[in-house]
Amino acid sequence: MGKQIVILNGSPRRKGNTSALVRAFTEGAEKAGHIVREFFLSDMNIHGCKGCFSGHSTKECPCIQRDDMDQIYPAVRESDVVVLASPLYYWNLSGQLRTAMDRLFALEKNDGNLLRGHDRFGVLLMAAEGHDFEDVQAYYSHLMKHLRWTELGHVLAGGNADVGDIDGKPELQQAYALGQSI
């Protein structure tokens, strides 16, 4: 039986280089029989975490804020794999993705932890103008350890400043292969 895969796409560009990696990964994963659901975060109304510790993980909408995270919470709860896709912004994930990740904290509060563990897996897809992914890789590894998710792999595509720069590069095939390997 196929896995439930959630992609949190933190790119601001639907046709950008990160989104090209997401498309390739999705094609591979769907060919392998998995169900993929992508959230294009830049088009969603997601507010920053207020740090109120008022979340209740077992509620349908675990956070007290009502916004588009209400679409993401149930998908993440039901997921086997969560893909973090982002351009490299100041040596880390984009603000769109960081905001959504911060808000997932509501799934860890009060009624039980529905985020950490649960035999989940993580994948990282990134595109960047440069090639320095060291800081974001350290963050991602620490995040996976904290969440108790197994890292399935990553595709880090440097040298992609302009939209379309990634076209024809081997990282697209790597993303496809990674999706297919799950």
Structural overview:
The structure is a single chain. This protein has 182 residues and is α/β, with parallel strands linked by helices. It has five helices and five strands. It has helices spanning 17-31, 69-78, 95-103, 134-147, 170-181, and strands at 4-9, 35-40, 81-87, 121-127, 150-157. It has a five-stranded parallel β-sheet, sandwiched between helices. α1 runs parallel beside α5 (170-181). It is globular and about 45 Å long. The N and C termini lie close together (11 Å). The model has no long low-confidence stretch (mean pLDDT 93).
Chart the SSEs and their pairings.
Blueprint: E1 4-9, H1 17-31, E2 35-40, H2 69-78, E3 81-87, H3 95-103, E4 121-127, H4 134-147, E5 150-157, H5 170-181
Parallel strand pairs: 1-2, 1-3, 3-4, 4-5
Helix pairs in contact: 1-5
Distance between the termini: 11 Å
SSE topology string: EHEHEHEHEH
Shape: globular
Helical segment count: 5
How many strands, which pairing sense, and closed or not: the largest β-sheet? Answer: 5 strands, parallel
Radius of gyration: 16 Å
The helix-and-strand class reads alpha/beta
Quick one: how many beta strands? 5
Average per-residue pLDDT, rounded, comes to 93
Order of strands, widest sheet: 2-1-3-4-5
Could you name the ranges where pLDDT drops below 50 across 5 or more consecutive residues?
A: none
Helix content: 25-40%
The amount of beta strand, in percent, is 15-25%
